[in-house]
Amino acid sequence: MTRRGVICTLRRAVLALLLASGPAHAQANQEDCAPPHRIEWPADRPLWSLCWISPDSSSGIDGSGLELRDVFYKGQRVLRRAGLPLLNVNYDPGGCGAYRDWQSGLMDFETDGILGPPGSRYAEPTKPPRTMCDDAGQAGGNFQGVAAEKTSGQLVLTTQLQSGPYRYTQKWIFRPDGSIDARIAFTARVDPCNVKPHDHHAYWRLEFEIGDDASDYVEAASQNSSAAVSWNRIRTEASSRNDAVRGGTWRIQSASAQRGYEIVSGPDNGRADAWAAADAWVLKFHPDELDDGGARQGPGGSAVQLDRYLNGESVDGANLVLWVHATDRHDGNDRCHFVGPTLRPVGKW
Ligand SMILES: [Cu+2]
Known about the structure:
The protein is mainly β. The protein is built from 1 helix and 19 strands.
């Protein structure tokens, strides 16, 4: 066999091994989006069509939590991929330092309506599942994976994550009016460290594709004193603090399709301090930028390093990715308080 032939054979063997080694960090393929992963809702006249990926199979070097792929509203694509690839914790001086979490760890929670064979990662509950937010500090439950609660008013996807002592409840909420809530709440199995004051930080990666022609653009609401909102168009890759953006409101649109989405990160989501870097990044899509490079080892490495992707590329008519930050503080409590951006349709849908 030639040297090239040997390499090809090796590559095929490695690929076969990867495919056989289970779903961890699997890339999207047809099988991922077969039922039950593909959800159409409401059943009688679907407005939403989306594909969910369980945290233990999600993208990125540390996982992406409850990940979505190929999200359509009224038959039009909204998101190609969306998830939570970056979570970290920063203790006050004299506390316990800073930590980068992982988003692939499943944790038990309580639900009915589990579908499929034992070990199934999917449930369709008839009542809201109970997570550690409902029983703070208490571990336990009968299920690990994704619960999709379908009511007449909303579709709620829920998962429970664990990363060391931390317990995170993540939700995606879809409504008939086209709005989406991306949410996370932080709590923990109490240990001597996490009773000290600290901030939790979450960074959602929203890979939009509005017009299906790779020519979307982003605007930020102008922080001026006039009553009417005016918009600043973002021309090249940028990051921003919400202090500089009115109402923490962004807008992504397709010029050709004359529709888009507003991304609102309200005051409840906190504000990035210097360590948290920024509240939003607008980046041109690159397939190898599903996380921030995973540089979590080393001094200071637990802070996000998304700024490395800011290299002046045009975002005025491109495949675009928005990263959106939210934070919650635990200071003598481990309150389970949901934070995260809300997405609302604008224009012709
Ligand atoms: Cu905490």
